[in-house]
Amino acid sequence: MKNASLAIIVVAVLSAWCRAQTLLSIPSAYTTDPHATSGAQAPNDAEILPGTLAIEAAKPAERMSLSDFEAFALDNHPALARATARVRAARGQWLQEGLYPNPRIGYDGSEIGNEGRAGMQGGFAGQEIVTGGKLRLNRAVAAQEIREAEQQLEAERYRVLNNVRIRFYDMLIAQRAVDLTTELDTIGQQSAETAERLYNAQQTAFNDVLQARIEWNTAKITLQNARNEQTAAWQRLAAAAGMPELTARPLEGNVTEERAGITWQAALDQILSTSPELAAAEARIERGRWAVQRARVEPVPNLDLETAVQFDNASRDTFASVMVGIPLPLWNRNQGGIMRAQGQLAAAQAEVPQIELDLTNRLAQTYARYANARYQVDQYTKQILPDAKSSLDIVTKGYQQGAFNFLNLLTAQRTYVQTNLMYLESLRQLRSTEVAIEGLLLTSEVSAEMK
Fold first, then answer.
1. How far apart are CA 21 and CA 43, in angstroms?
2. Strand partners, 295
3. Average pLDDT of each block of 10 consecutive residues along the chain (451 residues)?
4. Beta-bridge mates of residue 317
5. End-to-end CA distance of the chain
6. How far is residue 19 CA from its own chain's centroid?
7. How crowded is the C-beta side of 18, counted as CA atoms within 13 Å?
8. Suppose 42 and one of 14, 18, 70, 393 were both cysteines; which one would form an S-S bond, judging by CB atoms 3.0 to 4.6 Å apart?
9. Comparing C-alpha atoms, which of 293, 277, 240 is closest to residue 448?
10. Cβ contacts of residue 166 below 8 Å, gap of 6+?
């Protein structure tokens, strides 16, 4: 019985040692030293997982602002739900990678039937002891996968919010287009009535009346198109916010407000220093470094401990046994695994400058559109629009007094229409490129979605 007690004590001490090793050797996901490779690990009842990003939502107001749509998107967009689920999956992988192997227990019988007796009956318990810090390194690799998933979530968050902002400004511009085309419809109606009045007074030809009607009906078509575009702009905005069923409401915002200019160098520095795409690539480099360390300790053999207790029915004695075994790394020393990990690390290291070049190229294209749009908006605001409005007022008044013919009026109206519509398009381009640059080039227009 002394041997049995000794075996039980050995198993208890073995289990306690395994758990103690876990408490001492399992590190935080972001503070592990890649050069420390020794120590064994075991499970911990209170697992501490690396953190994740928090997402907040705001309550919508009656007159909806940009912040309301941003809150809707953060709370409802499926792309964010998908990216968040990937972070959760990576955290689960981190947890699983550090769990200690389960112990083994079983029945052990031998010499059964010898001399008609029951032989030796008993049980055994075994445990694999993980060496070389393998579990800790497993979690170090998985921690960088969490970091990468979190950066992909951050990138997706930028994409969703940037697209909401672009669609919000599109909606504001669509509203302005409706206001403009409504004004044009009114001008067309007034011109048609004036032409008819002058014709009745025999001061103009009937062809002027027909031309005025054509322009008025054309203005009606333009107005209807603007209203349809406004409806589509709302639908795109609601979809960007993740709530396509949202009922149209008035918006609160000023799309024409003046903003400080963006310089090329400041934009490039900001993008290269804060881009989640680069941060995710750097996480892949760190993961590769840990993976190389993990591959190098793979040949370190784990210990296989087993203890058994049996009762001999012939001699009426109790026996205990202890066995220790290790594999011999003679042929397989994980040579291929080490080579693969080193190759993956080299590929990850080469990816960072590639992404930097890609970001620079994308910024160059976007910044050119931004600079063009900013210059155009400035010219329209300060020169072209005031001149077009003054010209239309002068010609309209002169036409009513007979100083100008209808061709002069038609030219002034068309110029006014075209300049205002081109101004709105330049303004839309300006706001969309501003959002893209300030949003680290993460929009559906300039960057592919996360695969």
1. 9
2. none
3. 43 45 38 40 40 35 86 95 96 96 92 77 94 96 97 97 96 92 86 85 84 89 93 95 90 89 96 97 98 97 94 85 92 96 97 97 97 96 94 88 81 87 94 96 61 39
4. 312
5. 63
6. 38
7. 25
8. 18
9. 277
10. 240, 431, 432, 435, 436, 443, 445
pLDDT of residue 201: 86
pLDDT at 3: 43
Classify each residue of 243-252 as buried b or exposed e, where b means 16 or more C-beta atoms within 10 Å of its C-beta.
beebeeeebe
- What residue type is 15 in one-letter code? S
Distance (Å) of CA 233 to CA 69, 114, 250, 285: 14, 90, 13, 42
8 A C-beta contact, residue 267 and residue 149: no
- pTM exceeds 0.85: no
Following DSSP, what letter does each residue of 158-219 receive, concatenated? Answer: HHHHHHHHHHHHHHHHHHHHHHHHHHHHHHHHHHHHHHHHHHHTTSS-HHHHHHHHHHHHHH
What's 26's DSSP letter?
P
Continuous H helices in 201-318: 206-240, 264-274, 276-297
80 Cβ neighbours under 8 A, 6+ residues apart: 55, 73, 74, 153, 156, 157, 160
Structure tokens at 412: 């002034």
Q: Are 25 and 132 in contact (CB under 8 A)?
A: no
| 169 neighbors 255 (Cβ within 8 angstroms) | yes
Residue 160, Cβ density class (10 Å: 0-12 exposed, 13-18 middle, ≥19 buried): buried
Are the C-beta atoms of 146 and 328 separated by less than 8 Å?
A: no
How far apart CA 78 and CA 217 sit, in angstroms, is 44
Amino acid at 317: D
Quote the CA–CA distance of 433 and 448 in Å, as a whole number: 16
- CATH number for the region 66-119+133-296+351-438 comes to 1.20.1600.10
Distances (CA, A) of 85 to 81, 353, 448: 6, 29, 20
DSSP state of 31: S
Q: Is 312 helix (H, G, I), strand (E, B) or coil?
A: strand
At 116, list the tokens. Answer: 């008609």
Q: How many CA atoms lie within 13 A of 422 on its CB side?
A: 16
Q: Tell me, rounded to whole angstroms, the distance of Cα 245 from its chain centroid.
A: 23
Instruction: Show me where the domains of the chain are located.
Output: 66-119+133-296+351-438
Task: Output the six-digit token pair for 422.
Answer: 């081109």
Q: What is the pLDDT of residue 261?
A: 93
pLDDT in the model for residue 50: 41
- With CA atoms as reference, report the closest residue to 403 among 194, 212, 184, 186: 194
